[in-house]
Amino acid sequence: MVFEYILKMNGIDPTTDLTIIQNIDFGVTAEAFVGGTGDYTVEFEPHATGIEKDGSGYVIASLGVDSGYVPYTCFSALGSYMKEHPEIIQSFTRGIQKGLDYVNSHSSEEIAKVIQPQFEETDDDTLKTIVERYHSQDTWKTDTIFTEEAFELLQNILEEAGVLEQRVDYDALVTTQFSK
């Protein structure tokens, strides 16, 4: 949806100006591309860097950069749970903030070393390259606040994709009290 939204923002109609192959399992799109299917592919890491490292292709753009701050990851809780357990929500939010503080104040090499155990299948050099790319693209926010601007962008993307029937008021779904 984000890819199609970016195409449309740039005057490209994804239904008439190109063919998007969507019947390949997401886990094997990199292999399909390397095997000759398609002229371009949209990949998450570590597949994008893997394609570059083996000489099969190049990363030419970042959907995250071109789309703006799309909230790819957000956390949800029932209002009743937040009301009954504010200390848990606050502690969780502080933990996420500590992670953001870390990635925004340490080198790519330091970050790669710390997260390596979570990515055993990815070699150190590839992991460092990925983290460096994220740093250079300003991927990580500095705080946990889900802004109204990001919320509206997400709704624009969902609406443009035809999966959002009715827009929702920011204040009805989002609280920033724990982040603040």
From TrEMBL:
UniProt name for this protein: NMT1/THI5 like protein
Species of the source: Frisingicoccus caecimuris
Entry similarity comment: Belongs to the bacterial solute-binding protein SsuA/TauA family.
Keyword line: Signal
Compartments it resides in: Periplasm
Keyword tRNA processing applies: no
Coiled coil: none
GO cellular component: periplasmic space
Keyword Flavoprotein: no
Subcellular location, principal: periplasm
